[in-house]
Amino acid sequence: MTAAATADPGLPTAPPGGGADPALPGDLARSLARAQRRRHLAAISLTLPLLVFLLVVFLLPIGALLVRAVENPEVAAALPRTGQALSGWNRQDTPPAAAYAALLDDLSALPEAAQAGALARRLNTEQPGSRSLVMSTYRALPQLRADGQTPAPEAAQAQLLALDARWGEAPYWQAIAKNASRWTPDYLLTSVDLKRTPEGGLSRVEPDQQVFVSILIRTFYISGVVTLWCLLLGYPLAYWLSTLSARQANILMILVLVPFWTSILVRVAAWIVLLQREGLVNSALMGIGLVNEPLALLFNRTGVVISMTHILLPFMILPLYSVMKSVPPTYLRAAVSLGSNPLAAFFRVYVPQTWPGVGAGGLLVFILSIGYYVTPALLGGADDQMLSYYIAHYTNVDINWGMACALGAILLAATLVLYALYRRVVKSELSLG
């Protein structure tokens, strides 16, 4: 009997040419690992462009916003020697004479007047009058340094005091010392009506300057009212759509989505036409006898809420409709057949199953509402502007990027907190269910 005949047929045989058989377990595992790595690399190569796009247009701008909210480069970059000379100052007595000489050195080292202007604007936000003081000193540098050399500290102090007596007042030097560091919490503190004292502690800003907390509360209040109205209008509409046939629901859903196809500016302009004193709304109300004179619906909070509700209503309807469509209608019929009142069955059986849609729609509408700018700016009055209006003001008018980014960081933090609360509520409901 040959060796081939005596071999166990259940065992693999060696290949004719010798070497490892690819069908062996070890080789098979390596082949599978290589194939899996190739699939992973292919998946990564397909998703990499999207990841790069999100990084460039989403994550990097948010990171830059957060960094700029605590960055304070103007004073630190323009007056490095002055900040160092003031590092040991108690911020109450007269600054040391070396600080005056360092100030002349730093101002003379500025390559162009634009940097001096940026320095002056930044200090003026801390201490009114600093802008004229810094710019007048910058323009007088040729006389203060006639030979191109900075005078001795005592002589520099005397020259600056002779040029402007305000250089002998502590608040102007306190503003410089306070902003000598490149990083500062001042913008974030100001956005919640707090400030640093000259001694380094925290205190509330003056009563006539405490505006941002009230603006933030106003922003949340208007957003909450808009979210509530969207829920009250969107819930029955979404329920009605969920009871229709697929063809009818699709046709009516097109009408719901019509606002998405129109510019916000066009919709706001249309509401201005509708809500004005001689507009269609007032004319209709007076025509049917509900009012005797036109109502004030424009340039107040009423117009803002109406327009924002109209614009954001689809964002409430779509999540509600998707959840309601998945709820079997037999549940309500079963509850009624077991003796429950139809209205009680609706609120006890049907509504609890739609909480995920209510939460998702409410969160989406509220988050979009707190960032609204165009609608309140065009339809609201002075007391109806939301936080985004002041972000635009600091960006385009005051050119205070630090304050604008700090207010933007407040909105971002509020959004993240709301999302975290929503996730926690959803998880608790799922665990209870």
From TrEMBL:
Keyword Membrane found: yes
Pfam family, one: BPD_transp_1
InterPro entries, A to Z: MetI-like (IPR000515), MetI-like_sf (IPR035906)
Localization per Swiss-Prot or TrEMBL: Cell membrane
Residues annotated as domain ABC transmembrane type-1: 216-422
UniProt xrefs under Gene3D superfamilies: MetI-like
Recorded GO CC terms: plasma membrane
Comp. bias regions, Low complexity: 1-11
Assigned keywords, A-Z: Cell membrane, Membrane, Transmembrane, Transmembrane helix, Transport
Its membrane topology: Multi-pass membrane protein
Superkingdom to which the source organism belongs: Bacteria
Region (Disordered): 1-25
Regions crossing the membrane: 41-67, 220-240, 252-274, 304-324, 358-379, 399-422
This protein's record includes keyword Cell membrane: yes
Listed GO biological process terms: transmembrane transport
PROSITE patterns noted in UniProt: ABC_TM1 (PS50928)
Family stated for the protein in its record: Belongs to the binding-protein-dependent transport system permease family. CysTW subfamily.
Full protein name: ABC transporter permease
Organism the protein comes from: Ideonella livida
